[in-house]
Amino acid sequence: MDFSEDNPLEYALYLQYKDEELCWPFIGIALILSTIAFFGIVFNSTLIYVTIRAKNINGTANYLLALNAMFELMHQYVYFTFLYLSLTGQNFIDYKLAVKIGMLSIFGYSGVFPAMLCTGIDRLFCVIFPIFHRTVKKLAYLSGMCIACAAFSVYSVIIIIITAESMPNMKTTGFKGDLYQGNLANVRKNIIFLLIISTIFVYFVTGINIRKRKIQNVTIADKINRKIFYSLCLIISVNIGGYFLMYFYGLFIMPSLVQQNSLILAWFGVVLFAIPLNISAISIAPILFMTSALYRKAFQSEWKRLRTLVGLGSSNVIFVNSVHPVQPMKQIHI
């Protein structure tokens, strides 16, 4: 493929900055994105760690939230490649090499979307089929969802590798958005859009059913499910909001800039819109800390335990309540 014809944005960017040793626009944006990625790695790692450590955070929703965090964690490291290339003055590397370096990031980023849908489906099952949800074999149930998420991630990695092999002359900055090129990546983008719409639909249906049960029942389990649902709705809204901002830019703003031949400006627009997208990607743990008393207690207990281990010695193992439905025997706050 001809680099200049098939990738006009990247080609224009390459011609503009290929001879600059230190490109300050690249460095500035890379620093911002890498800083966000650093906090994302810390927050998402903390959520995964707390889910493992807190013995009673063992509901299906807990594990699926940790799965979401794991995928977000995997996708965020790629920004350090962009930062390294900018700070060293290399600025560009072969697209094939960038894909090899960013393969784990592609896998993680692609897994976010089916993971969000699986979390919504889990809540729908919990509300509509509560007996099934309580009695289902958790390992098989969660394994099936993990396999579905991994399948789409593997598919995404394969099509990006195929695309990279067909573009041997292309140069890229290492920025995450530059990894997704070609017609196959556009097909993948359409699938992601369908996954997002499906997630919204599932949460809408779940919300309607929770509303009906709120009118008909006032059991402890129903109250817990409502609180879980509201926390998850906030998480999904923030995450999907970031992706919709990027879609809005790609559908309405970027084509106008390309038509005006403002190709470099169009590329920088993609990078700038990636900032709120990546802020949304680090939101799971902070939102749970702010909205869930259970997670807040778990985070605080683990921080206290770690401080004790570092400073004074050992401390007690923590126990907190799970976010999966429970029998209406006692009050639990989320």
UniProtKB/TrEMBL annotation:
Positions of transmembrane segments: 24-52, 64-86, 106-132, 139-162, 191-208, 228-252, 264-295
InterPro entries: 7TM_GPCR_Srsx, 7TM_GPCR_Srsx_nematod, GPCR_Rhodpsn
Keyword S-adenosyl-L-methionine: no
GO cellular component, one term: membrane
Entry superkingdom: Eukaryota
Keyword Lipoprotein assigned: no
Localization: Membrane
Protein keywords: Membrane, Transmembrane, Transmembrane helix
Any one GO MF annotation of this record: G protein-coupled receptor activity
Protein's name according to its UniProt entry: G_PROTEIN_RECEP_F1_2 domain-containing protein
